[in-house]
TrEMBL record:
Family classification: Belongs to the nematode transthyretin-like family.
TM regions (residue ranges): none
Protein name as it appears in the record: Transthyretin-like family protein
Signal peptide: 1-19
Listed GO CC annotations: cell surface; extracellular region
UniProt key word Secreted: yes
Length: 161
């Protein structure tokens, strides 16, 4: 009887330890990043600009970690992590994409878009970013390098696109 009880105890212990191993491995591989800044259109705050934080350079909505729309003050803060991803999808090569209509008529279809890649030193282990990359104050009247136009912009992030 003692032998059977010992075998059952060992089997349960092994199941508990190795059964959660994939979850534990994924949780220690989780990475987070964040960015913040202020967007202006000339001397005025850029209201309703869209800011997306991507895990890597991609147009795939599944790579969006966070999405915000600037308020009346033009400020934004985005933060995201890879907690819902596995394996090689936990690496982050952070990319901000900013979509706006500065110096354009509101009726014009689509948004002006430019990309900011920022250093990986702002990627930390865990679910919460320890420090945010500060892009500072950007004037959207400027035409940024490789700026383009996103004609088929879909509002939101990966969960509702």
């Amino acid at each position: 009887m003692k032998t059977l009880l010992l075998c059952l105890t060992v089997a349960v212990a092994i199941g508990l330890v190795y059964g959660d191993l994939p979850k534990y491995a994924d949780s220690i591989m989780t990475r987070a990043t964040g960015a913040k800044g202020v967007l202006l259109c000339g001397k005025l705050p850029a209201k309703n600009a869209r800011v997306r934080l991507f895990r890597k350079e991609s147009d795939d909505p599944k790579e969006i970690l966070d999405y915000k729309i600037t308020g009346d003050d033009g400020r934004f803060e985005v933060e995201g992590n890879t907690a819902d991803r596995t394996g090689n999808e936990t690496n982050i090569e952070p990319v901000l994409k900013i979509y706006h209509k500065c110096d354009e008529k509101e009726e014009k279809k689509g948004y002006r878009r430019f990309v900011i890649k920022y250093p990986s030193q702002f990627v930390t282990l865990g679910r919460i970013a320890r420090s945010h990359y500060n892009v500072g104050t950007l004037n959207l009247e400027v035409i940024y390098p490789n700026e383009g136009r996103e004609k088929n912009f879909v509002e939101g992030n990966a969960k509702n696109i």
